[in-house]
């Protein structure tokens, strides 16, 4: 029998035994029992033995596949991609089984326990720092475990979805096998081979799911133990923190150590500055040499090969010197930053001691703010260091490539090695600085944990004081918040000095408060002035109102200027506001300003005064108030009408009391024709003379005015004074009542409308009279 036939027989015996006849079932999801779980009763040793046996079997299948490929005894129609896929699946199966074995081994590994021996309190600062370092390390380990669990959950979800797709593919392969059951042997063999491949894929995914589930169980148990360990470590650290405050001696020792290290770094800074100057001098010389060679090449026009070669070497030297100079600059900057970090560390220990001694809410809050500020500073430093480290690593890799490509007799070799060593030194310094950042972050994290312990011991009264202090601080911050700033430019001895003044919320509210108080005070003072002018000096009310308005405005202007000057608010702030106000006047406030100015004109020129009886646009009444925007007119019927001041200037206004308060009234009456006209005149003169409110000067007058259609018309003209409390029409009414009475007594008939009818006709009219009883009559 040939070797090929022997290999094919071996493959046919091994592969069907290695693969299940039906697709295997995926393990039930975590938390749900499987339909049939024979492995649940397995001991850990039996499970490990079964997994090892399956791992060995998978490796044998892989070897058999390799042998079949080498012997070229695979079924016809199987492509190279299917062979590769089967090989990959077998490798994945072996890896999944080994992964699960490793998880089982980790689950049985001994776990560290928290030290149970009691603490010998109080502890020194180094011992206390070591305790908190263990707490922080365990917190970091627990965070890493939770992150790994999260990634395993995502991997498990992806594997479940892939398993569902693999089972569907297996079903399709089985259907394809059934379709070719009656076909040729080669087709059936290829279909069976693809079914086995699909079943192997399902088996691999099940194994990977089982490995992930096992790893999850291991990590969950580890996380639970880590939580217990963290609680124990934290309890010990908190107990030690309460009983071991930072002493002045410990603080002084830490500050002295940090200060000494800062002083040593200052000496290193001086050395680094000297090294940087030397490197920059060499860089300058290299660039000058390169520039001279380029000038020489330009003079030659067509440079010689030797000159071009020299230019190339000079460029290499200049670039190398640049890298070395940059390294020297980075080294100097790092030493300066390291010196600053030790100075900050000394300050941190001092503030930590102060917070530990006070332990009140204000000190704890201040210390926490300091911790956050320092962490923010460290984060910025870390980002800068990482960016520089990434650039240095990339450049070092490029320089190493150039160095490896150089021949041993290359004259640039020594400088190239120096450049690489410079970059390596820069990388080392950057990594040391990152270690320093990590060290300071650990110190701050331990201080923050200590502050949390102090905060738990603060009483309710202290917490209330802390809340009140925080509220006051927040209010103070809002009060001092700068809304905008104004620049003032003044010239001093010919030089322009720019000053800056900020407009804060507090200043704004203070000015508003002063203005509101001033508005109230201005109203009271102006009102007092008006009452004094009217009562004591007997000043006319309109003029007193004018003085009242002027006084009110002046007081407001003075108070506004006083408020702005007192709170250091420049008047230049209102330059822009003045322009905006002017635009507003031109558009939106046109009518308002028009009425305001009209009111001022009315008060100054006084064409209409308080108490005048005026008539405008058919409206008649007495002026009771002249305001800034409108005037108030009360009609005879008691209705108050508000008239814009501009109307009193722009329209035709009748002022009945502009020069005096006298008004002439006319009363007309008609008497029947045939009445004695002289008697009528005499009676009307008597009536006017007897009325007490009719003025004698000018004297009243009775006129026989007209021969009317139905009466003789007489008119009485007389003058009366207008009073705010009396309607002059009442006098006219009294006169009419007297006329009616005296005319009746004298037998004079007041005429009523009548008509005389005259008929003209050439033929006499026929008149027919009928008796009242309806009997006929004669014509």
From TrEMBL:
The keyword Cell membrane applies. This is Mechanosensitive ion channel-like protein. It is a multi-pass membrane protein. Residues 24-43 are annotated as: Disordered. Its main location: membrane. One of its GO terms (molecular function) is mechanosensitive monoatomic ion channel activity. GO terms for cellular component: plasma membrane. Residues 1-21 form the signal peptide. Keywords: Cell membrane, Coiled coil, Membrane, Signal, Transmembrane, Transmembrane helix. Belongs to the MscS (TC 1.A.23) family. It is found in: Cell membrane. Pfam families: MS_channel_2nd, MS_channel_3rd. Residues 591-657 form the Mechanosensitive ion channel MscS domain.
